[in-house]
Structures are given as C-alpha cells and as structure tokens.
Amino acid sequence: MPQLHELVIALAAPWVVLSPRSGQLTGTGAEGVYARDRRILSRLSVTVDGEPPVPIHADERSASVHEYVAVVEGLGDSNRHDPTVMLYRTREVRSDGVTERIRLVNRSRATVECRLDVALGTDLAGTAAVRSGAAADLPELSPAYDGAARLHWDNSGTRVTVHLDPGVTARPRLEPGEEFTVTLRVAADFPKPTTAFSIDPPADRQPYAFAVDCNDKRVDRWVTRSLADVQALQLAAGDDRYLGAGPPWYLTLFGRDSLISSGMLIPVDPELAAGTLRALAAWQGTKVDPDSAEQPGKIPHELRAEVADHGGGLVLPAAYYGTHDATQLWITTLHKAWRWGMPADQVRDLLPNLRNALTWMKEYSDPDDDGFLEYIDESGHGLANQGWKDSADAVQWPDGTIASAPIALCEVQGYAYAAAVRGAELLEAHGESGDEWRVWAAALQERFRSAFWVDGYPAIALDGEKNPVAGRASNMGHLLGTGLLDADEELTVAEVLAGADLDSGFGLRTLTTAMTRFNPLGYHTGSVWPHDTAMAVQGLYATGHASRASSYVEGLMRAAEAFDYRLPELYGGRGLADESTPTPYPLSCFPQAWAAASAIAVVVAALGIEPDVPGGTLVLNPAETMPWESLKVSGLRLGNDSLSLHWQSGELTVLEAPEGLTR
Predict the structure, then answer these.
(1) What is the CATH number of domain 253-563?
(2) Rg (Cα) of the chain, in Å, rounded?
(3) 298: three-class secondary structure by DSSP
(4) How does DSSP classify residue 96?
(5) Which runs of E-coded beta strand occur in 280-424?
C-alpha cells in the first residue's frame, strides 16, 4: 500500500485526487477523490481485457491537471520491443469536480479489438475516518444506475454522481492510427452543514504577478511551484479567500495555519490575508464552552462541516477552538496587513474583533493567573497540546517524560507580547489608548526573562508545576522578531539555532538530537517543518543574524530541490551528515499551505522590506549576506501599488515603488 508521500496529488480546493503514479484508484489506504471532508470516490480504475495497463509515466502538468501514461500489453504488434497500444488518462480537478479523459491509442500495424472497463466505487468516508484507519472497515456503497452512462451513490445527504461517455464498459475496434476516448465527470451534492460553515471554492483563481529572477535557479523554481500550490489551495467563505491547510486531512479553514500562511503571503496577495482575517473574525468566540474550548474573543482552531472523530479518543467539534496561539496571530496578521496597505475601512471594521482578541489574552488565556498564557484540555476529547506542535508528545523532558499540563509554551508568550504591542499601535492609530497593552506586554517580558531561561536558552515551555522544560527545541526560533527578547538574548538564541543538533542541513529540527527520544521522523520530535524553519529565518533576518538565516535558507533550497520544489508539510531530520537528500515523512500532507508560503517568506525577509503604508514610509534593509549573488523580485504589493527590487552583490536597486512612500 503506498504511503501518503508516495501518492500523486491533483488539487483545486476543495476537490483533490490522491493516486499512485499509475493514476489508478484501487480503494487502498488514502487513495481517492475527496471534497469537503468526504472521500467522494475510493475506486476509479481502468482495465483492458480484464488487465490493468502497465504504468510508465505520470506527467504533473500543473497543480490541477495530470496525465498518466500506460502500455497495454498483449495488444498490437507482438514481435516488436516498442509499445504500440497506449492508454492515456488526462485528469483535471476543478473547484466543482473532476473530469478524466481516458484515451486508448492504437499505434500498431494491426486492427485492435478489446474490452475497456472503468471500475468505480465509494465508501463516502469522512477524511478523519480515512486518516485514523476506521474507513478500512466500511463497505462500498451500492450505486444506482441511470442507464449505462450515469450512476450515483447516496449517503447521509451526500450524493456522488458520475457521468461516463459512452459508458462504464466499451468494446472499441481500432484501426492502425485510431484512438478511442471515454470521458468521465465526477460531481457531488452535499448536505447543509450543521455548523453553518461550508468548505467552498473561491470565485476564481487568479495567477500571481509576483516573479523572482535569481542567479540560483532553485529559488525561481521553488517560488513558481509554491505559488501554483497556493492558487490550488484557496478556499472561500463568501467573498473572503483563505488557504486550506493541506490535503487531504486539513483542507478547511484553520486559525493558526491559515493566518501564518496568509501572513507570509501578504507581500504578494494582501487580499488573501484580509479575507482570512474576516473569515476567522466571523467565528470569534462569544461564550465559554469547555467542550469546544470556545471563549469570548478567541479565534478558532479549525472549522468543519461536521464533527471529526480522529480515533484514539480525539473527537473535535465542527467548530473547535483548542488553540492557544491563533488569537495572537490574528492580531499580528491584522497589524502586518495594515502596515502593508490594507484599506483603512477594512481595518476599522475589524477593530471590535481586535479589542475582543486583546481582552481574551488578559481575561481567559491565563486560567491560573500567574501571568503566562497556558492551556489544558478541559473536554477530555480535544487536543492535549494546543500550540503548533499539537501532538501528544510534543512537549517532553530530555529523558522523554511528557510534560504535565497546564502548558505555557514559549512561542505563545512571544506571540502574545507582539500582539499586545502591535495591537496597541493599531488602537492608537485609530484614536484609542494603547497604554494598557504596552504595560501588559512589558510585564510579560520581565516574567518571561525570569521564568523561561534554562541551561542558556529559552525553554520550550513551563509545565504544570511552573518548571522550565529543558531540551532545546525549534520553538525558540519563533521568539525572534517578536520583541520579547533583548539584543543579547536574540544573539543567544541565534547561536543555539546554529548548532548542529538543531540545524539538519535541510532546515531546522523540531527537537535537538541530544534528547533521549529524538526521532528524525518524529512528527514534532526531530523532523523538519518548512514553515517552522521559515519563521526562524524571518526572525534571524529581522534581528540582524543574516549568516545564520542564510544557512537555513540554503537548507530549505536543498530540500525543495529534493522534493521537486514542492515542500511537504514535514520531512526527516537526520541531516547532511547521514543523507544526501531529506527522508520523506510517510504521512506528510502536500501541497501544504504554510510550506508553500515559506518560499515567499524567506525571499521577502532577506530583502528586509518593512513598509508602513498608513505612515507613508518604506524601509528597505536587505541582509548583509544572502545565499545568492543576485536576486530580482517584481510584483510585490503595497496597497494598490507595486514594488520591484534588484539586489546584486550587496547593492539594492529600487526598480518600481509607490510614489507616496518616503524611503
């Protein structure tokens, strides 16, 4: 059975197809056509005279269009080595379904007669059931036939319809040079969501004007493929676009994931961030509900059309709020969007949500009133860890002991400090006082300095007994650029991140190799996550540690090249000393929103672009050292205007910039 990382992904969210490189869907593992958290088809296979063709090529023409090429053995010229009867399957995924053209081509010297069958089936399993393995016990549903060319399946209000022209079985007779085509169209109707949240496609998917021209062509290829994936991952809540986190499990609106991704992409797609902010603001918490972890002012963790049972006791409500960082990230994303030119009226409309989010930090995020933001799952069926490392073993001591709850993560404090300071700036720009939040931030900074440092670095967290959890982890990289650390502390963190125990050569390990239970393929215990590395890179560049940032950028480029420039959600962290390319993580999602956005994040961070469109200024502070000799970017967005730059051997030239900004 192929692992998830071995499958070919064709995507136009919310529709996605996961197949082996043969193109055949056999009902095995995660294979299938998916849409809106449902497996629409589990089988879609083709046979000729009862035998599957022999696959020879999978051509990924774009994120949404693939062609699968196979040889039909036993037909055509029998005394030649050259294949003479071929089967081509061109699969196109659209926002409303899938179309597949199956072409049988006779290039032999003889007439070919055969039987061509298309086998279809579905269990209509939820994605959570597929991921947990529970779907393996589900029977295939029985189809209803409307003649030989149309069939459908129904279950719990979902109807899947497949049209075939001419039908599921054909008996073509092909003269030399002739071909025969079966066209298949898959669509579905879905029940009304129980939560009023619907996973919908955007009205359109406009190509990006942003372009990169670098002397290292890996950068160009990485950016180009990443933006194509960003296009394919887009979903919408009404008119507001956002990014689904990643297929097949996370193709919906997430608080943390969608905010980090859209925040990284503000320089090329500011409307995406604005849409994400509004879509999440519409679901901002209004009440205290331990079952869903909702609290007034809190930004949700994830929104789905129905309850998701992930197995092992993890059952998440359709609207689930079990995140302790999305609220702060919402604030800092709003601030960044404002500084990059988000229209003033759109910012003003979100000020009530800003006030509520700030109030959540003070009144609800610190249940024991010790001055730190900490979490504990009160429902008994939610996430035990509620930072970005949300697996059960993500926070552990050097001997492997799991840290006790409630947990106060270091990066959550950094996000909170930045949210308070930047939230204060937003309030002050709109005629309100921000003093309360600046005082609050300063007090948090002092408490953090006295409580979190252990063995010369910031601990990953404080445990339930307020002990700093020892063991170096990538979380400290997220503190850089938040303002929580002073210059000396930033230097210390930069030096720790540069150590061989964390730098794999392909990116930043989530956990040091010195830990007893370090695992290079551990989800959060030694693997490499591109967005995690990119956030550290952003902080390293922002705090003046360019050489260390550039080392990590080089590592990401090595990894991007190894994965054909589509960085997955995560990958192995053994490192350059043990491997020439990174090891795939078997269950990694790809494409993945914040992995794709990371390409843009590191390029913009290296150029040191710091706009203040409301204030009428633009600061350009490129890094002293970069991993390239020449870098040209065009099509950056500052409000309604464009910015284009060319950096060459330490010299920056402005090619295009808004006239109203002082540089």
Answers:
(1) 1.50.10.10
(2) 26
(3) coil
(4) T
(5) 302-303, 308-309, 315-316, 319-320, 408-409
Specify the pairing of strand 315-316 against strand 308-309. Answer: antiparallel
Is 4-189's fold the same as 253-563's?
no
Specify which residues 528 forms β-bridges with. 509, 571
The alpha carbon torsion through 246, 247, 248, 249 (nearest 10 deg) reads 0
For 95-198, strand residue ranges (E) read: 97-106, 112-113, 116-121, 144-145, 150-155, 158-165, 169-170, 173-174, 179-189
Which tens digits make up the pLDDT trace of 21-70? 999 999 899 999 999 999 999 999 999 999 999 999 999 999 999 999 99
User: 202 and 269 in contact (C-beta within 8 Å)?
Assistant: no
pLDDT digits (tens, 9 = 90+) for 209-223: 999 999 999 999 999
Question: Which of helix, strand or coil describes residue 251?
Answer: coil
Element housing 551 (H / E): helix 546-562
pTM of the model: 0.96
Tokens representing 525 are: 């215990």
Amino acid at 490: E
Domain boundaries, the chain: 4-189, 253-563
* Domain covering 4-189 assigned CATH 3.90.550.10 in the classification: no
Taking each helix axis as running N to C, give the angle between helix 326-339 and helix 255-264, from 0 to 180 degrees, rounded to the nearest 10: 20
What residues contact 65, with CB distance under 8 A and at least 6 apart? 10, 90, 91, 92, 93
Q: Which two tokens stand for residue 350?
A: 């979100």
